Structures are given as structure tokens and as C-alpha cells.
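Annex B. Sample input.
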Amino acid sequence: MKTSSLPMKYMIRAKFEVRGVVEKHDVVGAIFGQTEGLLPPELDLRELLKTGKIGRITVELKSEKDRTFGKIEVPSSLDRVPTAIIAAAIESVDRVGPCNARIRVERIVDIRQEKRERIVRRAVEILKDWVSREEWDADRIIEMVSSALRAPKAVKYGPEGLTAGPGVEKSDTVIIVEGRADVLNLLKYGYENVIAMEGVKVPETVIKLCEEKEATAFLDGDRGGDLILKELLQVADIKWVARAPRGKEVEELTGEEVERALKAKVSVKELKLLRKISEMAPSIRETLEAVLLDEDGNEVSKIPVSELVDTLKQVENVYAAAFDGIITRRLVDTALERGVKVLVGERIGEGVRPRKRIKVATFQSLERGLYGVEEESRGG
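Annex B, continued. Sample output.
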């Protein structure tokens, strides 16, 4: 009986060259076939795979001019010495199918150390964010007081006398918030096309505005905001959804936080899909796997992260990809070429910038109710 996988300690990373054209299964088959009987029974690769001491072998390759080049990754939960022996055995493979081959181990990575480094980087990011939110300098206080003095006054709008900004009537767009305090806060930062629902039941005036204008619902990042959003989506033609960070209310946001939240707004379709991805996150993180979804949120494929870019180039009807890895500029470019609309990963790499045709987010941002790259921390 196959046991559950053990925590992986090391990752064997190797490169190979084959004098001929071969497929991934040929490479994997050669590794198992040519190491069988070469090592003691306790280090037999097939048995180690069955017992979860060796993880799934992944292969990336490309062929050109009658040669095949690629990379091999083998996760191991064994100690250093047996892992090194396994690596050396893999190097001994000299044929793949009928073709001569050469495999060279580049390095053996301590997966736990990589996780520790990731934890340290994230801890530094959290600390910086924490400190920056609590720093109140004189310039910021002066700016807040000055903006409050410059803020336009709220007006009463519609038969219900809803609190609104003076720009609601003339603007082609409208921002719908929960209460009067939210309107006053947004007016303070220059947003005049804003109107408050002032209750859980959606007023007829708000429903009519949503029919006439492009409407964005900007709601608190709490359970109350969730309930109001559910009600709004049932009765009003909402185009976009923006949320305050999880645990915060719109009325207490700074101007910078308001701007970030509105820039990170998502369409209603994307919102439903991102919610599903957020629910799936525990089953994706720390797996080195990627899940591809269609626009209805149905799973198209589940693959190793190492195969994500190549798979996106080949598979049709992929609307979103959620995976345990770093969102790189190369991945974003490939996703854009293939019409992918949503990418969710563990971290966003250097050089990745907001794009109009694709939504980029991390699992951490979804947990905090944020959906755009503007709020993300970055790494190499």
C-alpha cells in the first residue's frame, strides 16, 4: 500500500542532453530503468517513490537540431548521504530510449532552507508594513488637516436623501459605499462621484444609478461588507468591486490606501473566481503544483509548477492559473499571449508591473481582501 508523502528535505536539480528527440516519459523511464538493481534495495527508486521518500520526478525539455536538452528535479525526504547517492545514480544514466544521453547534477538544494529564507523575507516585509502604518510624522498630519479643509461638502441625493458627493450627477461613473462616514472620507481625498447606501437594503436610487453609470462597489473588509456585496450583486448592475483591507473600514483608510484599493478593483466575474481560488489556496500552497481553471472556475489541469509556462503555451481555454511559486515577468507575458486573465501565486517577482488585461495577485493578498499587484510585496 502506498503511504502518504513525507516532508521533502532536498531537491536534486540536474541538466541533461540527449542525442536525439525524446519525450518527458522517456527521460523518467530511463532514470527508473537504468538505476534498477544498481543500488541496494532500500535505495531502489521505485520503492522510494511508493513510500513517499522520493517525490514525483519532473522534467522540462526542448528539442532542436535532433538533440533534446532539459532539466530534471527530484524531491527527496532522505538524509544527505542517501540523497547524494541517488543523485549520483541519476548521473549514471547514459541512454534515453535508443539515444545516447548525458546527465549532470547541478546542485542539491535544501528545501527547508529555501522556506526559511522565504519566511525571513516575508517577516521583514510584514515588519516594514507594520512600522510604516504606525509612523505618524508632522508632514502627514499637516497633509491630512489640509485635505480636510479642502474637501468638498456632501449633498443629499435622490428621494431617499442619500449622502453623496457633489459629482455623482455629472460623472459617468459612481462609487457605492456603505455609510455617510465613508462618503466623507472619500470626499476628503478628492473622490466626488461617491454615494452611500446607508443600510443593508439597496435603495432604488442606487439601483437606478447602476443602470445609468459604470458602478464600483467599495465596501468594508469585514463580514458586513460581504453581506452588503451579496445583496448588491443580486439587485444592482455592479461592474467592479473594491474592498478595504481585511479587518478595515472604508471610513478609516488613508488616501494612499483608498487609491490602492480602487486601483486593485476587480470585475464581478474575476471576484467570483478569486474567491474560489482563495478557498483552494490551502490545497495548492507548499505543493509545487499549479491548477489551471476555465472562466467558470472549473479545473482544466493540475501540473507541476515547473511545467506551467510550457503548458500555458499549449492548453486552450485557460482563464486563471493558481500555483505554488513566483509570478515572473516571463510567466505574465506568456499568460497575456494566451489570453489568461488571472494569475495567483505565492509571491510576485521583480519587474512585474500592473497590466490592464491581466489580474495578478498572491494568496496572501486574497486572504486580506486585496486583488491587485499595487498592494503586493515583491521578491527576486
